[in-house]
């Protein structure tokens, strides 16, 4: 502000300000900034390539990680992204380096490719392995608590995290063991 720095009481609200209208390719996932959970929107745009070599752009996300997730989508899940331009963005200028974002990134790409809107009240999180398996993430309770506080009603999480949930949540949890099953849940 003009007078200097001021505290941001709720950073999740700051990064989710423009979610008035649900669109294909938009997903929210709970990231960790240090030990504090912050809800971040990931957006993807997938379109037919107009050039010989498809374009790949990742803003605020690890480019090589996005490339790996595209390979998993292609090889393990049957999405033909090899001939598509793919643009992925972490909204708000944040830099997301944690693997917990994998499922959100993957779902945003699949949503855009199929032009299907995902439930705007659902969060997704989990590390995606090369065979399409979903791996556990750290601090599941604090991530779910932040999502519940921001009004989200459903979470798709790795099955391995189900045992680690120690607090009672009012959020509906779908625990799955693979990216394929996660996409079946959110793209039904």
| Order of secondary-structure elements | HEEEHEHEEEHEEH
Structural class: alpha/beta
Taking the alpha carbons of the first and last residues, their distance comes to 44 Å
Helical amount: 25-40%
Range of strand content: 25-35%
User: Which runs of at least 5 residues are low in confidence (pLDDT < 50)?
Assistant: none
Enumerate how many helices there are, as a single number: 5
Count of distinct strands:
9
Largest sheet: 4 strands, mixed
What is the strand arrangement across the widest sheet?
1-2-4-3
From the alpha-carbon coordinates, what is the Rg to the nearest angstrom? 16 Å
Shape: globular
Mean pLDDT: 90
Oligomer: single chain
Verbal overview:
With 188 residues, the chain is an alpha/beta fold. It is 26% helix and 26% strand. It has helices at residues 11-15, 63-75, 102-114, 140-149, 179-186, and strands spanning 26-33, 36-48, 56-59, 84-90, 122-124, 127-128, 134-135, 154-158, 172-176. The strands form 3 sheets. The chain has a 4-stranded mixed β-sheet. A 3-stranded parallel β-sheet has the order 5-8-9. A two-stranded antiparallel ribbon has the order 6-7. The radius of gyration is 16 Å and the shape is globular. The termini are far apart.
What keyword list fits this structure?
four-stranded mixed beta sheet; 5 helices; alpha/beta; three-stranded parallel beta sheet; 26% strand; 9 strands; 188 residues; 26% helix
């Amino acid at each position: 502000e003009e007078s200097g720095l001021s505290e941001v009481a709720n950073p999740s609200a700051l990064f989710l300000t423009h979610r008035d209208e649900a669109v294909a390719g938009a997903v929210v996932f709970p990231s960790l900034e240090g030990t504090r959970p912050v809800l971040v929107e990931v957006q993807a745009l997938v379109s037919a390539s107009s050039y010989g070599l498809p374009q790949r752009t990742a803003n605020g996300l690890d480019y090589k990680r996005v490339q790996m997730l595209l390979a998993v989508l292609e090889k393990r899940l049957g999405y033909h992204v090899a001939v598509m331009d793919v643009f992925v963005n972490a909204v708000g200028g944040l830099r997301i380096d944690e693997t917990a974002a994998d499922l959100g990134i993957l779902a945003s790409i699949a949503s855009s490719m199929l032009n299907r809107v995902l439930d705007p009240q659902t969060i997704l999180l989990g590390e995606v392995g090369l065979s399409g398996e979903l791996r556990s993430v750290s601090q599941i309770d604090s991530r779910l608590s932040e999502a519940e506080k921001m009004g989200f009603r459903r979470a798709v999480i790795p099955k391995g995290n189900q045992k680690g949930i120690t607090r009672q949540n009012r959020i509906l949890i779908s625990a799955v063991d693979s990216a394929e099953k996660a996409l079946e849940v959110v793209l039904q």
